Input
Amino acid sequence: MGDGHGHGHGHDDHGHAGHGVSADADRRWLTLALGLIGVFMAGEVVVGLIARSLALLSDAAHMLTDAGAIALALVAMRLAARPPKGGYTFGLKRAEILSAQANGLTMILLGVWLAVEAVRRLIDPPAVAGGLVLATALAGIAVNLAAAWAMSRANRASLNVEGAFQHVVNDLFAFIAAAVAGLVILLTGFSRADPIATLVVVALMFKAGYGLIRASGRIFLEAAPTGIDPPALGAQLAGVPDVVEVHDLHVWEITSGEPALSAHVLVAEGRDCHAVRAGIQDLLRRDYRITHSTLQVDHADALAAPDHPDGADPHCEDPHGVSYRASAAGAPPAPR
Output
């Protein structure tokens, strides 16, 4: 806007100075986990067929989705690292969220198939070689512990990495359940222990899959990041010295761990808009870890009109939004 009333656009990338090194390390840890899982999965399919164990075959299928999840995570990391280009002004950062959502969905779909097959085997249980199941499951626990350790070294703040990690952790639980089932079958001959173990793992898969879909869905719907309360944030911004009002406040995540904010800030007459903007950006960085903020900062008196004596700008304000005023900074805001 004219007459010396400014627009502010602030970014702070200091926290990402080592991002390239971290991303390379993440890829190395994920590649190690992928190799461990891929080699063991091939052997497990053979043993599962010989032992006629659904618990082992289902876990081999789960390990296949583990491998796919890690491979997808690696591809998404490559895409997300590409700089902005053309119409993709944020780059392809949300490729990681697509990967997380795909991982959650595959866990639920695989869980449905395993649940149906487990119920069928509860009704008509086949003979299961408990000794083979137990030995293979114990080896699988060791492999999955190594893979989970490798992936825990990567940045799990990324939903992409967390999605692949959840696949491996659920596979670890599956092997523990399979080992218990194998021991029960070996000692008692109770073959239904195999599908019962599978159903326990299915419940865990549903829980983890739903969590991933919900978290990635919030980002796609541009909900406020978990842990940030927009009304409280707006009230805090309105309490910054020299701020008269804050409206058109939007806070969302570009991708997991990268919150962004935009707002229109009205400043008292004669005050320094640039200093206020810098103060708000410091507050956002310090208290909310928001380093990508777009702030339109204007003098309230410049926007005042005869029919808008409070200084609100009818062209800039969101009619369905909320205004936060300095006089009510400590109280819950009310819709305008």
